[in-house]
TrEMBL record:
Enzyme class: transferase
Name of the featured protein: Ribosomal protein S18-alanine N-acetyltransferase
Entry GO CC: ribosome
Gene3D superfamilies: 3.40.630.30
EC number: 2.3.1.266
Pfam families: Acetyltransf_1
Occurrences of domain N-acetyltransferase (ranges): 13-164
Gene giving rise to this polypeptide: rimI
Length: 164
């Protein structure tokens, strides 16, 4: 959905498969999204693992060509885990996260992945709502999993989607 007077039409975003050359761009997006962001070295290590893959969405060159968001997943046998999803603040609430997740689910389905897992901060109500709309169900809680600003701790909900 595009709001009036903006070019934020998710359908216009370009899509790229992630590789190690994206490490710096992913770190930059992650830093805009999370208080304890991963570094380009963290992303480089992950992207050099053959079981890790993902997608990046980018604005059309006519709109600046800026990176908008990404999803990173790790597979093992017939299971996969979403390691992280990040969308730049400018593009949040425009359907970018939904598009990223739908596209990665399509890829995992083609690869015969049976179960997809993720962890989400129990206070991130908008993300939880999105995951539920995409048929994820809560299966566990990891207590004190996240360290928040100021050292507070937050639980992670472990969610699973079967029959990806």
């Amino acid at each position: 959905m595009a709001w009036p007077f903006t070019n934020r039409d998710v359908g216009r975003l370009g899509e790229e498969s992630l590789n190690y050359e994206h490490a710096q761009a992913l770190a930059e997006i992650h830093a805009l999204t999370f208080p304890h962001a991963w570094t380009d070295g963290d992303f480089l290590a992950l992207l050099n693992n053959r079981n890790v893959s993902g997608l990046l969405l980018r604005e059309p060159l006519s709109d600046g060509g800026r990176n908008v968001g990404f999803v990173l997943v790790r597979t093992a046998s017939d299971e996969a885990e979403i390691l992280t999803v990040a969308v730049t603040p400018k593009w949040q609430n425009f359907g970018v996260g939904r598009r990223l997740l739908n596209r990665i689910i399509e890829r995992l389905n083609a690869d015969k992945i049976a179960s997809l897992f993720l962890e989400v901060d129990e206070n991130n109500k908008s993300a939880i709502a999105l995951y539920k709309r995409l048929r994820f169900e809560q299966v566990a809680i990891r207590e004190n999993y996240y360290t928040k600003t100021g050292g507070r701790k937050a639980n992670a909900l472990v969610m699973r989607r079967e029959n990806v």
